[in-house]
Amino acid sequence: MPAFKDQYGPVALVTGASSGIGVGFAEELASRGLDLVLAARRVDRMQALKDRLVAEHGIAVRVVESDLTKPDAPAALVAAVADLEVGLVVSNAGFGAKGYYETIDADLMAEMLAVNCHAPMQLAHAFMPALKARGKGGLVLTSSVEGLMGGPYSTAYAATKALVIALGEGLWGELQGTGVDVLTLTPGATESEAAAKQGFDPSKMQNVQSARDCARLTLDNLANGPTYCPNDHYRALFEQMLAMPRKQALLAMAQGMKPKD
Question: What positions carry a catalytic annotation?
């Protein structure tokens, strides 16, 4: 896709690139001819992904070990790609935790804030001047449908993802007329390791979208910000929820999400 590569290339940075939606973004961007920077903690997985994408698409791929729970990790990642012309930043790394709010480990919540909130804020801040100077490019921020309203029994995670939506919407408004596109992705249930880590049985989940489809649809709609949900089922569900009186919507969500005692 020459037009896509011209607007968002030559290099795309993808965080959280060792699994799930991050891998979907890497695969889809490689198929569109962009060179890649893959950033995550699990270098072995990214190296295997790099080898596959280089063999399949003949692109250049750089692997950067990055632990975004560390406060200085975003700056280190920016420094690691300073020699490259990054035209697209996909700030995708993130994780969540389910259950009664008071049972969530406090240190885990601090790490969640670092990865889900601090990292996208700092990466957007660091790359925005160069993108604006280019007069083209893009920024994708991965949030969640859970960030569209308070999420009982997913309270901390929903709160972090609400920040991402507010960040993306604000940047979308600021960058109108600059040639730089901003899209905040609000996926529903998507093929990833996250569900199993949060105690769900992936085999019993319904309306699960593949990571590659999620990435493809998001990139196809990059110019159509400020927010986008690629999953038809979850888009319709949350449109319905958001149209309800907020108390009623929250009570319905609490009933549906309450852990089994």
Answer: 157
Residue from 30, 74, 18, 78 nearest 54 by CA: 30
Asked whether the beta carbons of 116 and 160 are under 8 A apart, the reply is yes
Count Cα atoms within 13 angstroms, Cβ side, for 216: 9
Between the alpha carbon of residue 33 and those of residues 12, 91, 165, the distances in Å are 10, 19, 29
Residue 212: which CATH number? 3.40.50.720
pTM: 0.94
How many domains in the chain? 1
Q: Residues with Cβ < 8 Å from 67, sequence gap 6 or more?
A: 41, 73
**How far out from the chain centre does Cα 252 lie?**
26
Task: Give residue-wise pLDDT tens across range 40-85.
Answer: 999 999 999 999 999 999 999 999 999 999 999 999 999 999 999 9
Pick the closest to residue 212 from 6, 5, 27 (CA basis). 27
Neighbours of 149 (CB within 10 A): 17
